[in-house]
């Protein structure tokens, strides 16, 4: 019996009954970024950035400038100290590429506003610190830039593997994930004494056993990191202490003989934490092929779906309506709903492959007595309510638009716009009658 | 697709071998000798009409100043076409029509010759002896060497069918005017060139003369002029005059484009072109000239006479050919236009008329017609073509009543033309409102006169033509029921002529069939859109004989606006002659058809009445001969009901049989070509009824084949319904198979059910070898996929299973289908496996008819404001959705999955209507999350 939960062809709760395939890229599309209510940009290994209309799927612009694959893409807010180049408050984006350049683009005109090519290494992450009117680029070192793309200061060489993630924390600090360690830097703004910006290494956090793959600010009080071996650590955002650590509860430790079948199909990298998302109460983690919901208050996993996909989950996002969307290397996108679990005794779990009991046991600390397992079983469940099959290769990322549906990008070079068919139909009707009215053919 | 009149196109097309029915052999006593010339492919009708040519053709003649009227060329340029027809004689006839030739020369009070730009004249004339009727278009071309500078020509469209010429006069006139304009434009250009040349000549001559005079002057100092000198001076003067005259002519001819074409759309570059050409010609003539002058100077005896116009009038001089007169480029264009005309008016009149009505109606449906019509595109193309045609209509030309301009056939017109299209039938037409829920038009037959009188009447009116027993009866409900008992084909002849039909009747010279077509219809325009082919053909063999007389081999069709189920329920009461009506078929041959004919009480008297008793043998004969679909061959069934009492039939037994044989022969020889379709009945015209504007036989053939194969598919596969439902609802159907030919064939067949996304291409991919991708489903709605045993094949199958939610898969090799459930009522009507339609083209029309109805439902649904938008602010979307559902269900009468079909079509309509520029709308892939089922034979 496959542990993978499946859903039949009948998906009444799946609203996405219309799709539009967008084709412009010639290689893997890895990044999507929302520009405004109805536009987004995509970028990938072919080095081009394409700006799309999310409603019509129309290709608005193609930005050519990078010669190698794009490694980071971020929107660049127009600030008060705006560039003279963008008086009209055009939407700007910042892209970094393997050709060791960073380009600032104007997404309304397609113009290349600025280009920086003085990098020693490929920039792997970008972050904009809006409070300080600066932005940082992370490669093998960390550089600080101002709005006009002047280099303010930089760190020494940190590591050959480079910075894999970068987040902002209070007190003018940033956290950089470099290999297994987290390094906290403090930015020193110019004062009367020194006119120069400076960046100081404050602290090294060495709690992770393996490379840190994902890092996210959870709320105002903590941030969370995940590593290749499945450690999830929740840190205090102010004093950088470990608040909680979930190291191996999803790790199929050898001693858990009861879960042999699961263990068999799990390779070591199956527990690497690729992505986090969060809401007020929970942190959602994409762990290997599975999805886990960790409650911050209860400090425990409240729901999980150990085999959410056939392959690694690459990106997840929480929707407002208690829904979670995940995409995976298996080429599918799945929509989940977090539900309060029924009273266990009263309602037997309906389907075989949807059995949470096994997971419940696994999720517990190994030391916990078996009797207690029932009480400690996850109180919630992730129910599959739909899947979106369209891509023929790994789905790298997706973007959710409240009004226009879901955009997914994939290694098959395609971007697919998934839409709510009913709503689209209504919109088309609206458009039709508007046109009729324009033509003066509308008789009510 | 729209018009039921399509069904009167007398055509012939299919292989009977394919039909699974084996008729009992005809008893010896009823067999009739075969038409003797059938084996030569002769058209029996043309013999009857007395025409000596086999089909319509175009003749260009000239009234030559040397030899008188002479034929120049025919289109098509094939001696077989006009056969033994005397072209010389006919040229004489057409050129002798009183024709106001343009006056060219010195009008009184004018110093110089004036060119008259005369309008072409258009006349219709007939020659009963030759059995030929012609639309004659006279025109004059200018020729410097001709008498009065003019050469009268005429183009004639010659047909054996006077009716056709009369009915199509406007269209013919419009088309021929284009050809004429083209010729004349070319001619003006050539004439201008000629004049320029001539001017150069004259100029040179003047120079020479002048020099000579000077020399003489110098040589002669005596103070008086010698006679020689005077002569020279005179010559010089006449040359001067001639130069002025020619210059004036040149000015006139050059001014033509500006003068004449003012007001009409300026043709870019035309006048310029003319000028250019002229100057070019001048340039070249300059060269020629210099060469000439060289030549002349070499000659000692160079006299001005060489360029005098007199010389050209010599009878030994060869006149310019038409091509020379008109500039080769324009001449070939004209020929192209003429062959276009020939193509356009090919076929029987009824065919032309129905296709015109068809097009006109389609034009009306510009919002929905892209869905299932492949015709629109053609129409557009033609329109474009016509626009781009070089000749521009002259300003004085009578407004062409071509289809583009004449909007919609009015109700009466459409009926009228429909009527007339069946050739000269005495029809009485009454329009009245039925007391049923719909309006009805009925054409009632009144057979109060006795048969003999009828015949006399007929004779009188038909001008001695062979009789016709044909009638179209458009029957109302009760009234028709009352009248029907007396109605038979013969009785119909007695119908007093109503004004509307006089014309059509009076001109008829020959009628071929004795059909009686009964149209039970809501209103005439709807008669053109029958909701189903509720036509039946009675079979005296299978059913009681008593039925024979009332149904008479008639074709009943019935258009209903009521939803299908209602229609069915009411059928019995609404249809008066319903006993024979098999709703799903054309030939009521099998009584086991889906809808068992109802026999209402009102019908019984008919049987007892027995006014005409029709021997069942006739049916048998018919049945044996060929299975007739009323759509294309109604001549045939009609023949059977031609009762014995009908002398006309006896007059001409061969003819009827022959027609059958011809069709048979043609079937044998070129069974699959569309050209057969009209062979039976198109008398004077070409065998190809190639739809006038359509690209021709290929599309006809395509339709027919597709229809035939679709029919086969429906009969062969019990799960055809869900498959067709998939296509109609926009779910991609993948036809999987190893054999490319089979897959392609089926894909072509099924493509008739695929709604178009735009008007340019059907979303159909006939053959794919590579694994399918998501984009394929977005682009294509019907795909033929190769099944391969290799690993590549497995990946292709893997892709198919991965995307199974977007597709229905028809596995031809395993005879299996995987697709969602279908429980609607629409597809069974569209694709009844027990249908008695046997002919591909008939089935195609049937499909188109049902689909048209569907389109109109989708149209209603799409464009009802309140169904899609809230009526006021407080209304929730749920209320609107509820309204939608109830409209679909109650008003449109859709059940279950049929709703999805209409919704899908509505989405397509919306997309098409809202997209700014055609073709820019990107098709979205719409789908439903519904479970699929596996069907297997």
TrEMBL record, chain A:
<comment type="subunit">
    <text>Component of the C9orf72-SMCR8 complex, at least composed of C9orf72, SMCR8 and WDR41. The complex is formed of two protomers, each individually consisting of one molecule each of C9orf72, SMCR8 and WDR41. The protomers homodimerize via an interaction between C9orf72 (via C-terminus) and SMCR8 (via N-terminus). Within each protomer SMCR8 (via DENN domain) acts as a bridging protein between WDR41 (via C-terminus and N-terminus) and C9orf72 (via C-terminus). The C9orf72-SMCR8 complex associates with the ULK1/ATG1 kinase complex.</text>
</comment>
<dbReference type="InterPro" id="IPR036322">
    <property type="entry name" value="WD40_repeat_dom_sf"/>
</dbReference>
<keyword id="KW-0853">WD repeat</keyword>
<dbReference type="GO" id="GO:0010506">
    <property type="term" value="P:regulation of autophagy"/>
</dbReference>
<keyword id="KW-0963">Cytoplasm</keyword>
<dbReference type="GO" id="GO:0006914">
    <property type="term" value="P:autophagy"/>
</dbReference>
<keyword id="KW-0072">Autophagy</keyword>
<dbReference type="Pfam" id="PF25178">
    <property type="entry name" value="Beta-prop_WDR41"/>
</dbReference>
<dbReference type="InterPro" id="IPR040102">
    <property type="entry name" value="WDR41"/>
</dbReference>
<dbReference type="InterPro" id="IPR020472">
    <property type="entry name" value="WD40_PAC1"/>
</dbReference>
<comment type="function">
    <text>Non-catalytic component of the C9orf72-SMCR8 complex, a complex that has guanine nucleotide exchange factor (GEF) activity and regulates autophagy. The C9orf72-SMCR8 complex promotes the exchange of GDP to GTP, converting inactive GDP-bound RAB8A and RAB39B into their active GTP-bound form, thereby promoting autophagosome maturation. As part of the C9orf72-SMCR8 complex, stimulates RAB8A and RAB11A GTPase activity in vitro, however WDR42 is shown not be an essential complex component for this function.</text>
</comment>
<dbReference type="InterPro" id="IPR001680">
    <property type="entry name" value="WD40_rpt"/>
</dbReference>
<protein>
    <recommendedName>
        <fullName>WD repeat-containing protein 41</fullName>
    </recommendedName>
</protein>
<dbReference type="InterPro" id="IPR019775">
    <property type="entry name" value="WD40_repeat_CS"/>
</dbReference>
<dbReference type="InterPro" id="IPR015943">
    <property type="entry name" value="WD40/YVTN_repeat-like_dom_sf"/>
</dbReference>
<keyword id="KW-0677">Repeat</keyword>
<feature type="repeat" description="WD">
    <location>
        <begin position="306"/>
        <end position="346"/>
    </location>
</feature>
<feature type="repeat" description="WD">
    <location>
        <begin position="90"/>
        <end position="115"/>
    </location>
</feature>
<dbReference type="GO" id="GO:0005765">
    <property type="term" value="C:lysosomal membrane"/>
</dbReference>
From TrEMBL, chain B:
<dbReference type="Pfam" id="PF11704">
    <property type="entry name" value="Folliculin"/>
</dbReference>
<keyword id="KW-0072">Autophagy</keyword>
<dbReference type="GO" id="GO:0005096">
    <property type="term" value="F:GTPase activator activity"/>
</dbReference>
<feature type="region of interest" description="Disordered">
    <location>
        <begin position="634"/>
        <end position="655"/>
    </location>
</feature>
<dbReference type="GO" id="GO:0005654">
    <property type="term" value="C:nucleoplasm"/>
</dbReference>
<dbReference type="GO" id="GO:1901098">
    <property type="term" value="P:positive regulation of autophagosome maturation"/>
</dbReference>
<dbReference type="InterPro" id="IPR037520">
    <property type="entry name" value="Folliculin/SMCR8_longin"/>
</dbReference>
<dbReference type="InterPro" id="IPR037521">
    <property type="entry name" value="FLCN/SMCR8_DENN"/>
</dbReference>
<feature type="region of interest" description="Disordered">
    <location>
        <begin position="382"/>
        <end position="404"/>
    </location>
</feature>
<dbReference type="GO" id="GO:0010629">
    <property type="term" value="P:negative regulation of gene expression"/>
</dbReference>
<keyword id="KW-0963">Cytoplasm</keyword>
<feature type="region of interest" description="Disordered">
    <location>
        <begin position="564"/>
        <end position="612"/>
    </location>
</feature>
<dbReference type="GO" id="GO:0098794">
    <property type="term" value="C:postsynapse"/>
</dbReference>
<dbReference type="GO" id="GO:1903432">
    <property type="term" value="P:regulation of TORC1 signaling"/>
</dbReference>
<feature type="domain" description="UDENN FLCN/SMCR8-type">
    <location>
        <begin position="48"/>
        <end position="910"/>
    </location>
</feature>
<feature type="region of interest" description="Disordered">
    <location>
        <begin position="667"/>
        <end position="707"/>
    </location>
</feature>
<dbReference type="GO" id="GO:0000785">
    <property type="term" value="C:chromatin"/>
</dbReference>
<comment type="similarity">
    <text>Belongs to the SMCR8 family.</text>
</comment>
<dbReference type="GO" id="GO:0019901">
    <property type="term" value="F:protein kinase binding"/>
</dbReference>
<feature type="compositionally biased region" description="Low complexity">
    <location>
        <begin position="276"/>
        <end position="285"/>
    </location>
</feature>
<dbReference type="GO" id="GO:0005085">
    <property type="term" value="F:guanyl-nucleotide exchange factor activity"/>
</dbReference>
<feature type="region of interest" description="Disordered">
    <location>
        <begin position="260"/>
        <end position="287"/>
    </location>
</feature>
